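Issue 218. Parser rejects a valid record. Input:
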Amino acid sequence: MDAHNVRRSFRKIAAAAGLHAAEWTPREMRHSFVSLLADSGMPLEDISRLVGHSGTAITEAVYRQQLRPVLEHGATAMDDIFPVVDR
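Output the parser choked on:
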């Protein structure tokens, strides 16, 4: 399947879903998919598998901007669970 056929198929699917196909690209939809999953708290390993990456390193590298707030939120949660104890 060439790029033209992908775009044409994408436009048909987007229109059937009630979206304005001219406002979206397959790439934007994929990034939105990853962002929504990350925001919902889905583990990075699961997101990585869903988007077909061989490991989480690729997912982190490609979607770093979308994942950073989720990773920071997770780190903050861990800090709350395991507070630093002065010795």
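Fixed in the parser; the record now loads. The chain has a mean pLDDT of 81.
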